[in-house]
Amino acid sequence: MAAERGGCSLEAVPVPLPPEVRESLAELELELSEGDITQKGYEKKRAKLLARYIPLIQGVDPSLQAENRIPGSSQATAAVSKQQKSRSTNSRDERFRSDVHTEAVQAALAKYKERKMPMPSKRRSVLVHSSVETYTPPDTSSASEDEGSLRRQGRIPSTPFQSHSNVEPWLNRVIQGSSTSSSASSTSSHPGGKPAAASNTATATAAATVLADLMAHAQLDNHSAPPDVTTGLVEHLHHERPQVASVRGIPRGYNSSILETADGVPVNSRVSSKIQQLLNTLKRPKRPPLKEFFVDDFEELLEVQQPDPNQPKPEGGEMTALKGEPLGVVTNWPPSLLAALQRWGTTQPKTPCLTALDTTGKAIYTLTYGKLWSRSLKLAYTLLNKLTSKNEPLLKPGHRVALVFPNSDPVMFMVAFYGCLLADLVPVPIEVPLTRKDAGSQQIGFLLGSCGVTLALTTDVCQKGLPKAQTGEVVTFKGWPRLVWFVIDGKHLAKPAKDWHPQVRDASADIAYIEYKTSKEGSTMGITISHASMLAHCHALTQACGYSEAETLTNVLDFKRDAGLWHGVLTSVMNRMHVVSIPYALMKVNPLSWIQKVCSYKARVAVVKSRDMHWSLLAQRDQRDVNLSSLRMLIVADGANPWSISSCDAFLNVFQSRGLRPEVICPCASSSEALTVAIRRPPDLGGPPPGKAVLSMNCLSYNVIRVDTEEKLSVLTVQDVGQVMPGANVCVVKADGTPYLCKTDEVGEICVNSGATGTAYYGLLGITKNVFETIPVTAAGVPVSDQPFTRTGLLGFIGPDSLVFVVGKLDGLMVVNIRKHNADDVVATALAVEPMKFVYRGRIAVFSVTVLHDDRIVLVAEQRPDASEEDSFQWMSRVLQAIDSIHQVGVYCLALVPANTLPKAPLGGIHISETKQRFLEGALHPCNVLMCPHTCVTNLPKPRQKQPDVGPASMIVGNLVAGKRIAQASGRDVTQLEDNDQARKFLYLADVLQWRAQTTPDHPLFLLLNSKGTVASTASCIQLHKKAERVAAALMEKGRLNVGDHVALVYPPGVDLIATFYGCLYAGCIPITVRPPHPQNLATTLPTVKMIVEVSKSACILTTQGIMKLLKSKEAATAVDIKTWPTILDTDDIPKKKVANIFRPPSPDMLAYLDFSVSTTGILAGVKMSHAATSALCRSVKLQCELYPSRQIAICLDPYCGLGFALWCLCSVYSGHQSILVPPLELESNVSLWLSAVSQYKVRVTFCSYSVMEMCTKGLGTQTDFLRGTAGPDPTTVYVDMRALRHDRVRLVERGSPHSLPLMESGKILPGVKVIIAHTETKGPLGDSHLGEIWVSSPHNATGYYTVYGEEALHADHFSARLSFGDTQTVWARTGYLGFLRRTELTDASGERHDALYVVGSLDETLELRGMRYHPIDIETSVIRAHKSIAECAVFTWTNLLVVVVELEGSEQEALDLVALVTNVVLEEHYLIVGVVVIVDPGVIPINSRGEKQRMHLRDGFLADQLDPIYVAYNM
After folding, report:
1. Which residues, in sequence order, are bridge partners of residue 1437?
2. How confident is the model at residue 1003 (pLDDT cuts 50, 70, 90)?
3. What is the end-to-end Cα distance of the chain in Å, rounded?
């Protein structure tokens, strides 16, 4: 049998092991799994036990034998004795244990072959940090669950590990276990090698796919490949963003091994094989396609799950309300709880009431009924008479008072509770706040505030332990009201005056106390319980449990609330019982303590949770003399948890031989709102025999009860929680919507009508009505009763013998695609996978989050400190499979966190709502994450089907019929604006400069500022002219250049750049301005310089001495071939020479300069600018900005291309104004430089880029209010619907409406410019407010591309486009931008209505996904908003997967928090599933000189594995 189970380590043992050895072995396994001993300790003890029975294999290291078990043989020691079998040797959290379930899970897993999933890649520092932090050295036990037990060892840098040989061995183990570095060789050594530089695209593509497949398979064969840890391939020496104009193509002559194949698939890349693997995984068939849709707002169709015609439906008749037995009449029953206390306190003062134990289990104090009465009286008197504020008593009857007592001090709590009742005050018991950041503490503060609490009672010891402010007073906790803290130890209480007597009234409907409850969402509500309810509940419990006077009860539960309070503080006093209170801290040290106390006190009743039974099972081996025969009732307070049955059964199996009778175990069901709902009674109290049901989980997910006979895998075994309480009526109603009665075979919410339930949520009228005043109705709509019922939040049904069965709680309910799943069930399945190896102390939280209109299941588990990356990933994929096959539901997100880091509830469980809150805020800090949106999200909108093309002519006709005008706009007519004589004179800029040098030689044109804001250099008209002449002379003599030769100007921003530009014009050469390489980042910036020089066919480079040295340096040689530079001249000390004659172009259409830039898609293009176009551009800018010689303007732009170049080098000479030049790079060391220049020189016009503006506004905050927009009507902003834009439509919406996107008008169109909107495919003109490509026609349009490097397909089409219909004569330039024109109500200077132009984004950049057009910036904006640590984001697509790259500005610990937040926000706002989330350091996303992101370059870097990411998550 053992061998069948899968390689049990005992199979080679010939000697049968004696039972006691087997038992010890099983106990060892349990200890190990509980974290009570370390792996090493376990191996040692195990070896010792087996030593004399293993003569054959003595030389083998015992740990090896232990390891060769097959995963999944969790019952490895199946050969142990029968009695042992009951405590399964595998130790998940036993509350959720069920042997049947474990076998089901293992069977389900066996059906799957290991599904291959791409492992996430993680940077080594992240790995080490997550495991070292929580790894406990062998000598300390990792079992403590105290808040303080996790001593963070801080982040250990990842370098010293390799060098220090004296690192502690356990630490070494962590490092080796977790950061197996995998080198790139694992992927590059595939057969086939690298294909030759692909000349034929088709073969290249084929090669790429074959290769991708090969790579995918190479990794698939071996599932346990080492984790993919990206080693630091790129050293980022400096953190500023490398300002690289990076280039996608690679010039001829470059190393061909880094060439891409035609698809953009780099040949040698680990990343692409990962993505291929992900695609293979995603190709598996999804759930059946869904037919119907509902409309969300307008045409965004989100799929809705249609009911499956074959789904199970309830078939029983309608249930009838179930009546409990009547409350018996008891002679001499006190009229109120206080009357009972008074009676016992005065007539039986010596009787013990409550015994408190310390953490060693010794009884430290026994409170008698006499003492309880006298001390409560003293407290009541003190509270009412001795506490004043401004001479008024601080408290009046009915005021609420907080009770803050630790779980170890039941005595003081009891005194405080009864003292408040006697004073007619309302106690609100809460947990002791330990720190300002306790889980849920803020919500408790909200509760106290809403209850108007101003006073907190506590003990001396507790008050000393609370965090203090500087003044020595207790701090005000976050979200709490200001409280007066009053210590109730004896010395602070006053003796009541002789004539003072408390009023002990009959029980009334006034509030007696408020119990707090935390809802599923994490909000805390106070449930009010009246004096009458409190009394009725005590009465009902006394009758149901058959309590009698002077009985002894042991209570393990929290005495401040729920069953612990009802049995151990209230009902016990009613019946003069003796309670032995067992503190949680003692249970942690000695889980058997409650059983020992039952024995020593001969207790008749014990109140426990299934967890306490499970813990005591683990420890019972030491106690042979335990006897439980005195117990008549063992009340299991969480009997309503379906998984408590396994603890009850296991407990009975072990302790039946020690006097425990089976009928003693009494599960009960309770809820904060309805108090006790049902409890199982022993037969002597008239209870029927216990019931058990094996139910089909699939049917339960449809709320249908079907007993499962076929031993299917997915079943839920539940036990009854007994009968309805005396005096109560119970019915089961539909949980949502109108409370219709359920059918007899249908699961619903249990509702109770009795005098013993809570009455309201304090201060919350709306939900109170819904929960406490429900009127159940029959199918015909007839009310079942005239009395209101209280909803319990328990889901269940009434079984045979009128027994109540509970299958789950409303709080743990997750509704995915109309099917309902219970969080506890999912936890149990996850724990059954192989908890022993993996989950730390069985700590798993399961909850749902709403993403895209449906619940999505999230599972968070604490992993054992020594778990390796590989273990984690394997466990995660197995859990996914198990949950999929047993519950038929997908898990949206699986997160693993280091041991002991989940927020704890007061008694050690996991605080679920706080965990959920942290998950949503990105504060969970997981060390592993697996998201599965592709498999879970089935309600995405239908992909858009493009309509068959409507021709351009029909579009025009359609617009005319609809009364829409064609979208056209133009700037002012240039011809009317100035005398054309001047325009002709100013046709050549070289002429203009000579004319200015003669007429206004000393007029200052340029003023360059350095980072300190002082003037670095200036140039007047004559200085500029003379310098240009010297440059021209040098070009002809030294450079031996001819007219028409191209010259590259490689200068930092400054006057030299401008002077050499005019020098080239004087010599008849064609200048090309080039950004100099960055000395700290030559590897990425120098190739771009080289490329522009080569592509522009420059015959010569002009530069400074410093840059010249750099271009020829050793460092440069590693980046480019420095032998192939053309002639390099430095212009630092050129001789003063005049040119014999300054060149004058024969025609204005001759080339003036080349404008080279790298587009955001990584394409390098040089645009040809003729002399005519150059002067037309200057003229339009001059007219628009009203520039003339007496003006000063400030420019903070890069001078190398586009408008920045025109403003630096051309416009001042043309218009004669003075330009104050601020190089944008200087802002990095002095953010306020540009704005202080603007204010110091009182400049009216300034130019800057978005990146400059952003830098200033981020750096300077509110000092930037004085900036205003362009001339003309103020630019308007419209809000468009982002979802319509995806369909290429413009739909205006109100500001603030969902999915709205603000667009600001692009300012006034320049004089002489005409703009039209053309259809992107048919090239026909579009109507007003239609989205299309913006086409421009103007005298200064460039004449064409000089060359486009990288995409030969871009032709002159860009410069000489004609409309396909309508005005087919005008020649337009296509801008490549999507936008629309909209006629506004405003008028411009000419009295015409103003046409506003709105630019939506670049056409090249758009992503086509699911048939819709997305703009990266919109997705990026959403992502950046998702978490405060996201500094920047860029998105691109690869093989139809959306890849999101996020820069993390924060600790690497936060990296994995971002994966879920990014996936959520993109799903919610854009209806897209993110395929890969890449988390990188700040500054990795390349940005070009204009501040635009270079997404394609980033994509190439990612695919070539050059980003050194912190983490790469592949969403499944």
Report:
1. 1442
2. very high
3. 38
Q: List residues bridging with 606 in a β-sheet.
A: 554, 634
Tell me what pLDDT residue 33 has: 62
The whole-angstrom separation of Cα 1128 and Cα 1100 is: 6
Q: Cα–Cα distance between 1501 and 1496 in angstroms, integer?
A: 9
SS3 (DSSP) at 1241: coil
CB neighbour list of residue 530: distance below 8 Å, 6 or more residues apart: 507, 508, 509, 510, 511, 512, 759
Other Cβ atoms within 10 Å of 171 Cβ, number: 18
Q: What is the pLDDT of residue 434?
A: 76
What are the contacts of 1349-1352 at 24+ separation with CB within 8 A?
Answer: 1349/247, 1349/249, 1349/251, 1349/1091, 1349/1095, 1349/1163, 1349/1164, 1349/1165, 1350/247, 1350/248, 1350/249, 1350/1162, 1350/1163, 1350/1164, 1351/1163
Look at the alpha carbons of 373, 375, 377, 380 in this order and tell me if their dihedral is positive or negative: negative
Confidence of residue 841 (pLDDT cuts 50, 70, 90): confident
E strand or H helix at 678, and its extent?
Answer: strand 675-679
Rounded to an integer, the average pLDDT of 133-148 is: 34
Half-sphere exposure of 1227 (CA within 13 A, CB side): 26
Q: Which long-range contacts (CB under 8 A, 24 or more apart) does 797-802 make?
A: 797/705, 797/732, 797/742, 797/744, 797/745, 797/746, 797/747, 797/748, 798/319, 798/322, 798/730, 798/732, 798/744, 799/691, 799/693, 799/720, 800/691, 801/688, 801/689, 801/691, 802/322, 802/688, 802/723, 802/724
Give the helix/strand (H/E) hosting 879.
helix 869-887
Cα dihedral 725, 731, 734, 737, rounded to 10, equals -90
Specify the amino acid at residue 179.
S
User: Whose CA is closest to 679, among 639, 730, 632?
Assistant: 639
- Length, in residues, of the chain: 1516
CB 1227 within 8 A of CB 1234: yes
CB hemisphere CA count around 1457 (13 angstroms): 24
Residue whose structure tokens are 């990584």: 1162
656: nearest Cα among 631, 637, 678, 693? 631
Least Cα distance to 1096 among 1088, 1104, 1106 occurs for 1088
Residue 842 is predicted with a pLDDT of 80
Give me the phi and psi of 493, to 5 degrees please.
-100, 145
pLDDT of 803 higher than 90: yes
Share of the chain above pLDDT 70, in %: 75
Residue 976 in tokens: 């009317």
1078 within 8 A of 1225, measured Cβ to Cβ? no
The reported pLDDT for the residue numbered 192 is: 40
Between 1189 and 623, the more confident residue is 1189
| Residue 1467 amino acid letter | L
Q: Token pair for residue 537?
A: 């509940």
Phi, psi of 1413, deg, nearest 5: -105, 120
What confidence category does residue 1489 fall into, taking pLDDT thresholds of 50, 70 and 90?
Answer: low
Average per-residue pLDDT in the chain?
78
Residue 86 has pLDDT above 60, yes or no: no
Partners of 815 in beta bridges: 820
Mean pLDDT (whole number) for 1410-1429: 90
Which region, left, alpha or beta, applies to residue 100 given φ > 0 means left and ψ of -120 to 50 means alpha? alpha
What are the tokens at 452? Answer: 């108007």
Question: Is 976 strand, coil or helix?
Answer: helix
Q: pLDDT grade, residue 380 (50/70/90)?
A: very high
What number of other Cβ atoms are within 10 A of residue 366's Cβ?
14
pLDDT at 840: 81
Residue in the structure block whose two tokens are 């209480």: 493
Give the pLDDT of residue 761: 95
Residue 283 vs residue 1416, higher pLDDT: 1416
Q: 1381: buried, middle or exposed (CB in 10 Å: 19+, 13-18, 0-12)?
A: buried
> Which strands form 455-458's sheet, in the order they lie side by side?
426-430, 400-404, 455-458, 484-487
- pLDDT of 1336 above 70: yes
